[in-house]
Specification:
This protein has 253 residues and is of the alpha/beta class. The protein folds into 2 domains: 2-98, Ribosomal protein L30/S12 (60s Ribosomal Protein L30, Chain: A), CATH 3.30.1330; 106-252, SPOUT methyltransferase, trefoil knot domain (Alpha/beta knot, 3-Layer(aba) Sandwich). 29% of the residues lie in helices and 25% in strands. It is built from 9 helices and 14 strands. The strands form 3 sheets. It has a 6-stranded parallel β-sheet. Strands 3-7-5-8-4 form a 5-stranded mixed β-sheet. Strands 2-1-6 form a 3-stranded mixed β-sheet, with no helix packed on it. Strand 1 (2-3) and strand 2 form a beta hairpin. The protein is elongated and about 60 Å long. 36% of the residues are buried.
């Protein structure tokens, strides 16, 4: 293996217990028990290395190299990588990272736009939303307790590394939003159309609802304004991740 442009000695090969441990982290209860999550693939691991998140252990095949990582590396074969990977085509490197714990308080509402998610269930949707939030500079995402775990391997993979750049908080969404003294915009098919003549207040909160049922009635009562994306075609609705990206773009326009 090449590290910082020079050959480096690998640590011992991955053990059966380590393989088992990584596979266990596919389940939420074990991620919570150990306080760890898995990051796979060269791009995602590179993003992790360059972030402030703590890497607890890194496993790589002989052909992986990095100019940024100076920690210890445990080797594994392509066969072993395939055994533990969540990818159809495993990619050279797997990292175990410490799950970060972020404190959310009302002062965070002053940091531009806060994104709030009400029961987002699909891992791919949440991962894409996190990536879009990172692109548009959102610092904090509030997730209802019943939303999919952001450290689910499918979510992590969908973020393409952005999981390391956005603070994600699981909260009682009604209680938390009820404490906000800034406008709360909620995506709704019957809302005011956003466009060149629509202006978001800043700071603000953007609330996105469940894929099937939208924003819950309980949270709907907290909205300052319902907003929608103008439709010019025939599609009935937009995927929540796509809709979130469009609304984040309008906020930044």
């Amino acid at each position: 293996m090449i590290l910082n442009g020079k050959p480096t000695k690998l640590m011992p090969e991955i053990t059966k217990n380590e393989l088992k441990h990584i596979r266990l982290l596919k389940q939420k209860k074990y991620r919570q028990q150990f306080g760890e999550f898995v990051v796979e693939g060269e791009k995602n691991v590179d993003e992790l290395i360059n972030s402030t998140l703590e890497i607890k252990q890194l496993f790589a095949t002989q052909d992986w190299h990095s100019t940024n990582y100076n920690g210890e590396i445990t080797s594994l074969s392509n066969k072993q990588l395939a055994q533990l990977s969540n990818l159809s085509t495993p990619n050279k490197v797997v990292a175990l990272a410490k799950i970060p714990v972020f404190k959310f308080d009302k002062n965070c509402f002053e940091e531009g736009l806060t994104l709030a998610l009400d029961e987002i269930n699909d891992p791919g949707n949440l991962g894409t939303i996190i990536r879009s939030a990172d692109w548009f500079g959102v610092k904090n995402i509030l997730c209802s307790a019943s939303s999919v775990d952001c450290f689910n391997p499918k979510v992590v993979q969908s973020t393409k590394g952005s999981i390391a750049n956005v603070k994600i908080h699981y909260v009682n969404l009604h209680e938390t939003l009820n404490q906000a003294n800034i406008p709360i915009y909620g995506a709704d098919m019957e809302g005011t159309k956003v466009g060149k003549d629509f202006s978001f207040e800043n700071p603000a909160i953007l609330l996105m609802g469940n894929e099937s049922h939208g924003i819950s009635l309980e949270l709907e009562k907290l909205l300052t304004k319902k907003i929608t994306i103008p439709r010019t075609g025939k599609a009935e609705s937009l995927n929540v991740a796509i809709a979130t990206s469009i609304l984040l773009h309008h906020f930044n326009s």
